[in-house]
Amino acid sequence: MQIFVEFLLRNVGLFDSFCFTKRKIYMTQCLHPSMQIVSDVFSPTCARLSPSERARMKTLLDEYEVDLGNAADGDHRLSTKKNIIDMARDFQVYFAR
């Protein structure tokens, strides 16, 4: 332990301090999981959905009158979002990493 402390004390002058540097934090908008699912359903390049799963989800979205235009609106009920997520959980590889 004493060797480690001596090593740190000898090299204190080698490091610069970043206390007063200007930094910018970029915030990105995080989508609710149900909104991400909706965008994946309407994206033809999404590899996480098979054609049959995409068709089943489109049928559910049509029942709730959800499409890409109104998916980001806050007008949808929580139960609608929950049902979308529950159906996606039944898909084989949608939530797999």
Polypeptide structure, described:
It is built from 4 helices and no strands. With 97 residues, it is an all-alpha fold. The chain has a domain at 33-90. Helix 2 (33-41) crosses helix 4 (78-90). It is extended. The two termini are 41 Å apart. The model has no long low-confidence stretch (mean pLDDT 77).
Which helices and strands, and how do they pair?
Blueprint: H1 2-10, H2 33-41, H3 51-63, H4 78-90
Helix pairs in contact: 2-4
Question: What would you call the structural class?
Answer: mainly alpha
The number of helical runs is 4
Unreliable parts: none
Silhouette = extended
Largest sheet: none
Q: Short summary of the structure?
A:
With 97 residues, this protein is mostly helical. The protein is 45% helix and 0% strand. The chain has a domain at 33-90.
Describe the structure using short key phrases.
mainly alpha, single chain, extended, 97 residues, 4 helices
